[in-house]
Amino acid sequence: MVDPHSELTHTTHGDTSSHADLTNIPAHGLHPVHGFDVNPWQLCWRGMDIDMIGRTESLFALSNGHIGLRGTFEEGEPVEQPGTYLNGFYELRGLPYAESGYGYPESGQTVVNVTDGKVIRLLVEDEPMDLRYGRTVDHARCLDFRTGTLRRSTLWTSPTGRTVRINSERLVSFTKRTIVATRYEVEPIGEDMKLVLQSDLLANEPLPLPDNDPRLAAALDSPLVSALADCDGNSAVLVHHTKRSGLTVAAAMNHELEVPGNADTSIRADGDLARLTVAATVPQGSKLVLTKFVAYGWSARRSVPALRSQVEAALAMAAETGWDALKAEQIEFLDEFWRDADIEIDGDPELQQAIRFSLFHVLQAGARGQSRSIPAKGLTGPGYDGHTFWDTESFVLPMLTYTVPGAAGEELRWRHNTLDKAKARAAELGQQGAMFPWRTIDGDECSGYWPAGTAGVHVSADIANAVGRYLRATNDEAFEVECGVELLVEIARFFAGFGHHDRNGKFRIDGVTGPDEYTAVINNNVFTNLAAAQALRDAVTAVHRQPAVARELGVSPEETTYWATCADNMTIPYDEEAGVHQQCEAFTLLDEWDFEASRGRYPLLLNYPYFDLYRKQVVKQADLVFATYLFGDQFTPEEKRAAFDYYYPITVRDSSLSACCEAVAAAEVGYLDLAYELMCESVFTDLHDLHNNVSSGLHIAALAGAWTDCVAGFGGMRDFGGNITFAPRLPSRLNYMSFRMIVRESRIVVAIDRDTATYRLLDGPPIELAHHGTRFILSDKPVTEPIPQIVDQVPPPTPEGCEPYRRPHVTP
Amino acid sequence: MVDPHSELTHTTHGDTSSHADLTNIPAHGLHPVHGFDVNPWQLCWRGMDIDMIGRTESLFALSNGHIGLRGTFEEGEPVEQPGTYLNGFYELRGLPYAESGYGYPESGQTVVNVTDGKVIRLLVEDEPMDLRYGRTVDHARCLDFRTGTLRRSTLWTSPTGRTVRINSERLVSFTKRTIVATRYEVEPIGEDMKLVLQSDLLANEPLPLPDNDPRLAAALDSPLVSALADCDGNSAVLVHHTKRSGLTVAAAMNHELEVPGNADTSIRADGDLARLTVAATVPQGSKLVLTKFVAYGWSARRSVPALRSQVEAALAMAAETGWDALKAEQIEFLDEFWRDADIEIDGDPELQQAIRFSLFHVLQAGARGQSRSIPAKGLTGPGYDGHTFWDTESFVLPMLTYTVPGAAGEELRWRHNTLDKAKARAAELGQQGAMFPWRTIDGDECSGYWPAGTAGVHVSADIANAVGRYLRATNDEAFEVECGVELLVEIARFFAGFGHHDRNGKFRIDGVTGPDEYTAVINNNVFTNLAAAQALRDAVTAVHRQPAVARELGVSPEETTYWATCADNMTIPYDEEAGVHQQCEAFTLLDEWDFEASRGRYPLLLNYPYFDLYRKQVVKQADLVFATYLFGDQFTPEEKRAAFDYYYPITVRDSSLSACCEAVAAAEVGYLDLAYELMCESVFTDLHDLHNNVSSGLHIAALAGAWTDCVAGFGGMRDFGGNITFAPRLPSRLNYMSFRMIVRESRIVVAIDRDTATYRLLDGPPIELAHHGTRFILSDKPVTEPIPQIVDQVPPPTPEGCEPYRRPHVTP
């Protein structure tokens, strides 16, 4: 049970001793629901439920942002999606069109399942250990947010009655980003046993292939071609390359074996399989312990021998470090993370767990990407082909910028690395500057649906906005000089050329698709226009701050003056008669959606044609409402409430990107309990599989929404122009909440209860903040301020059949 | 040379004797340009030009609307597209999508090249006759608009020096719609020769397959599976079925042989080939003459034996009729057509020829379809997959309605036959009533691009408007009762449900694509809205006229009242400040297109992405300007001129559907010489291959534009509410024009010279007409009226690089 006020005293969770025992899976916690124990620092699943296999593979995924492993069993089966992913490693697939058009991408990129190093098969006497056979006496798996490991403990009786206990623990190292390690123990119960372990590197595993897309299936079916296989002692290496994308991947493994008595070991490596085989007779009461280290590397340019050397060197380092030290480093890394990013609440233990689960997975997605992207599903599954969307800059980076700023900077460096492709794409489409792709792995546009893809130009503004936010939050001048200015300038050039001034001098941006994908190819989407205005202004600021860089980019004073003019004259459609902003021009004149008729037919896009969705007032996901939060200084409080009251009842939240934004906006206009419900919908998206697709990967943006909902929603944190302000206020269900942030060199913690908020500087220089509009300087002495009370507000109704998700066992 | 005033006296071209001689190809006519002799009643091409093969195959195509034969050589090769098409006979192909969506068609229909009955191969001694080898001494082909035959005369010397003359004549019978006949003569020159003829029925001919679409290529490559092959005497039959669409086609042939002396004949039939072989030694001065009759039939339901019987019976009838009678019937049929439809001009002989060429091909496309569609390319080539678009109702039927009204009615009966599919499609897309497909062969939507496809709802209004026009022009009550009312009611139901009244009571139709395909998915397209208003009003009228039919369709008084309300409150966007209608809402606020930059990059859709075209003021084809003609009673003369002046300079005519509409509008507002140039662009679209794609088939709509430009353009004919009015006025290049029309039971001819117009009733009851606003009754006595003179107007400029096509040898 969490001490609700512990954040003011706790520093690190440095005691690692409790993690050394692989069997350290706690007893059942509070009301185990949806199969999970309720525990503030772990996610544990007990028992064997074949239907849950795919979901737990995603939920129990381990990643450091460079390597991702789905939470499959060591024994390889049962399995739904064996997934081993390397950030940026992809295969090409042809994109077919019934009717093609100029500028349509001819091929797309799709993440591939690379060589699997997770597999350690077990033969108990002459029977393969497989949870689908025999009897599973006891079985639990546990993802630990403080150790960063996936533990597993199984007591299994084979069909012929032999019982073994298997304990394993697996980590993807945060500190050594190319390394995966597994510790696997088997103990015979009640009798001596002959055991055989087979530890594999396995390429081209069979996968469930999509049956509706023959070209995608072809790209995913056995995508790797063997280039090298070798072994020696307890080590082996496999190198493969892809058929079309020209990428090479190397995986190497070695092992440490603890065996009571003698063991026969042999090793082989050939084509798609490398295998260490260990055969031993293990006395009851003893354990066979195998520690397996795997190193991964890939490259588009390095040769097979070079890649082989690279992974073998990494492996040597990992072996030299050893399991215990790797795990200790892992814990230390996470202690630091929780020190900077933890959120504690009182009043909803299940939500507490879900929030930490969320923060942990966002960290995993972004921690060590190092100039690589953060895909929409992280590295947890093959969903969305492994692509990165605007989710990253608009949902994930807001959290990382204030908690793991280095990771946010690395992601933006990846965007900068793809700037040449974005400029080429703009030129191909007849535009100036840079147009970033709607969906991609390495920077090339992979969307085969242009109304939601190419026309979704806000993605470029989102990137610029993330750059502006990052610069204000970090003062990272090296990034600004090396990447930031250029990104801002090229994106400003795009928007300045893309929009135009009409005959009345208003700057229009026509023919775009905003965040709401149920309204497409429209004029003057408020979100896009405000995001573009922000991007143009940030470019002007950056040019003035870094004149030398700007000169190199050929920016003239006339150009920046024009950018400012575009921003100042931006068209923001407003319906005077209805007293509300229009999501896009004419939106409030469109026909109403028949929510009664569409009850039970969600997501609408699977049951209605685009052309009917687009022409009616039905919204997939927060769009204008998101704008009132992100660009909140451009709206009055009355406008924000009018926007929420108008758009919330027509927003069906068919996207996991919706509830978290709406929660923040709801909290701001005083609908605190609705905000709480919406936050829960976002946070439980994956844990409770609300979209029925978690088995293909987690929704990283929705998980990052947990942080945003706490900090920007109930904490009321805003950062306009680098001024950090708060307006905290709790929903009725919570008694207490605290969160942590890094702002420039300062680390702060904000603790909120029903009547007061306390601000405390953990380290770094004093910082100016604001509490409900009153500015103050936070230095060593904590500041406690009263929270202005508001009358409970009655929120507008939700569309019929679209009520926010309510946990069945939780009383509203 | 045409007698410019002959129309007042000529009745039929009944003298058929001159057509009996196959060698009746006239001497060179006036300035042979673009390879064609200039001749008022024929299109002749001389010489052998391999590069022209594909084009002449289309230009010389023969069709009766049921069967279409491309103008290939009897000898089979050289060939680009051997095409034999049966109206409505198609194969299915999978439609692939990079990202699929609800309601996307899974498969499309594509026209197939069926069993080829044109082939008659010739062996001269031991060498195959092939124009690519040996020496072509003399070679001419001639499409005769009065005989409806394709004649050919070739004097050829084989590589080993043997010379033969080959004359052939081919027809696709207008009077016996399942019959094709060919008369083929070979005469040895200078010596006796052994000749062998092989007359084939040949299925699954090799075709040039598209290299960019493997699924289409797969559907087209050997699409037919043999079901039966049999032969007897000089006759043979082949029956095949398609692999996926489940259609069966039967082709049967028989022969009459005239041979001086003995000949060996043999026949075989097996799988994809049936062949009559004739071997004879032919003395010089004699001829070997083979007359070949081929009958076609196809069905989705009839059995193989039934289809076989059907074609054999048709063949028996054709043989009994014989070549001479078949040809005489053909001439008689065409005499009647020219009596009702001919247009004569003085001042531009090449245009005269092109106009008759155009009218002839439109007749061929529609004459005997009989409850089948009129595809965009007729049955002249595989272009557009053989699909029918809105072209038919909006461009082709206006001509047929007033010249071959039965053919117009048959086409609309085809639409009625597909009404169940259109209703199912509407239901699938969540709409009421009927939604007709954007492109189809048998009524199923085949468009894989929804913004131009599904959203192009005006196609349904176009069909309703064609029904309304047909009913007013024919008083065809049987059609009205059986088809017309139901079509109008279901289409009115669609639009009444599809649009909605906004809070100010205006009826809006949002999220559609109008005729201009460079602007898509927009709100309140004027063309669509006016077409829908017309459709709604015509439905009200039809319901009142046929109350019993309406009752059966469940039409209530409330429903028709609502339709009238929708029509009366239709939103018609108008830009007060610019003083011009908006093609769609906000259109005149969009960014300007950079015509300077796009010079030489036409068609724009191959060089610019949709998303950039859509968001700017650039127009592919007449849209608002077309509306000012079609719905001219809804605009003032000033509004029409403002519309033309605004839109003509931004319309790039990347569609062959543009110039003919713009010509009519230009003529109306007084830009007569520009109208003439635009008319020529439309009329020469195929003859001069202006879109560089005539080899895949003719542009039937552009050809029909010849009639519209003469009658509605320079004749100023309008038919609002059944009142036929004229406002004739000639461009400076023409001294004279006459045209003919059928209106209800009356046949009229209008002859226009520079100062007067003369109206004459050929037969039928007196009819009320109007001349430049003055009404009069036309009865037996011709009426001559003066033409009010106007000052020459200076038209607006054309976009740079988009000037109307000018024939290189013609002085403007």
Structural summary, described in words:
Chains A, B: Residues 1-18 have a biased composition (Basic and acidic residues). The structure is a homodimer of 812-residue chains. Helix content of chain A is 31%, strand content 25%. Chain A is an alpha+beta fold and 812 residues long. Chain A folds into two domains: 6-337, Beta-galactosidase, Chain A, domain 5 (Distorted Sandwich); 366-774, Glycosyltransferase. A nine-stranded antiparallel beta sheet of chain A has the order 3-11-12-13-14-21-18-17-16. The first copy, chain A, has a five-stranded antiparallel beta sheet with strand order 10-9-15-20-19, with no helix packed on it. In chain A, β16 (224-232) and β17 form a beta hairpin. In chain A, α7 runs antiparallel to α8 (405-417), α19 (659-668) runs parallel beside α21 and α20 runs antiparallel to α21. The longest helix of chain A is centred in the middle third of the chain and has 22 residues, at 477-498. Chains A and B meet through β27 and α16 of A and β27 and α14 of B.
Give the secondary structure arrangement, pairings included.
The structure is a homodimer of 812-residue chains.
Chain A: H1 17-20, E1 30-33, E2 36-38, E3 42-46, H2 53-59, E4 62-63, E5 67-69, E6 84-86, E7 90-94, E8 107-111, E9 120-124, E10 127-128, E11 135-144, E12 149-157, E13 163-172, E14 179-189, E15 193-202, H3 214-220, E16 224-232, E17 235-242, E18 248-258, E19 263-270, E20 273-282, E21 288-299, H4 304-321, H5 323-341, E22 343-346, H6 349-366, H7 391-403, H8 405-417, H9 419-428, H10 458-474, H11 477-498, E23 500-501, E24 507-508, H12 526-545, H13 547-552, H14 557-568, E25 574-575, E26 580-581, E27 591-592, H15 595-598, H16 610-614, E28 616-617, H17 624-630, H18 637-647, H19 659-668, H20 672-687, H21 700-714, E29 718-720, E30 723-726, E31 736-743, E32 746-753, E33 756-763, E34 767-771, E35 774-778, E36 783-786
Parallel strand pairs in A: 27-28, 30-34
Antiparallel strand pairs in A: 1-2, 3-11, 4-5, 5-6, 7-8, 9-10, 9-15, 11-12, 12-13, 13-14, 14-21, 15-20, 16-17, 17-18, 18-21, 19-20, 22-31, 23-24, 25-26, 29-30, 31-32, 32-33, 33-36, 34-35
